[in-house]
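Per-record layout

source: Collimonas pratensis
name: Sel1 repeat family protein
length: 302
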Amino acid sequence: MSPTIRYSLLLAVAGACLGIYLSTTGNSGEKLRLKTASQDPVSPLSPRSGELISPFAAGAAGQGNDLAALPLPSAPVYARNGRQVDLGGLTAQQYIAKWNSLARAGDKDAAYNVYQATAVCASNDDPAPAYRSAAELEQFQAEHKKLLTLCEGVNAAQLQERLSFLAMAARAGKVEAQIDYFIEGPYGRDTDLAKSADDPVVQQWKTEAVKELKSAAGQGEPFALALLAQVYNAGELLPRDEKLSLAYKVAEADARNSTLSEEQLRRNAGAQMSDTEFAGALQTGRQIAAACCKKNRLSPPE
């Protein structure tokens, strides 16, 4: 398997896991609800089918003169990053305008709000996914028209600028933004990382993406720990390191208050390691968990 394909699959898995993981987390940002939909698959899957959509899929807001009469979606909509976003009855443009001044002043939550609203519109011109029936396709097309209405007025410059707002929020330490910075990729669209290895934007993104994931992991974020385990296993952003990959799996399980037996870990991640390497990886994982997760875990109520 080529490095580009392998890394794309890594990100696809990361995106597909995001909605599932976020079903256990709380809200973040004004009017932003992170959860798994009760009726639909998680966001990187098409809302009406099981087709996997790459986290790096290209997108731009579509517009049309026949959209003004369509009602806005009544439920939270999916953003490109895999999260659900509740715009509070506003259009995306209205929501962006609401938070734009604070975002430009450096407020990390406002910057993330602007990013989220714009990310809702980032894939509107993607081809329709494959559906099993004409009825499913028709339902998708009806919802898509509503989404175009929601995104009317959001232009290409705003779609591109969302990455700057995302980077601002990530660098300011907002955990959700740090994870999304990794998932969005260097350009927020399909990018061949192997062919773009000499691109300074890609090089900077690789460095910062790992830095932001480690920062989020340092705050006890289990999903960031899981992503780092994948990153070290894939060997695309960093040199492949099976021992560190296993260590981050151990830390992730600890952060989730779950238990993985040594037999499970050996079978799933440590099959090629010597006993000494395996024991060292487990110890490193426990040290990572002790440094990042236990200190961030909420104390039980008195």
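summary: The longest strand covers residues 77-78. Residues 16 and 44 are 5 Å apart (CA to CA).
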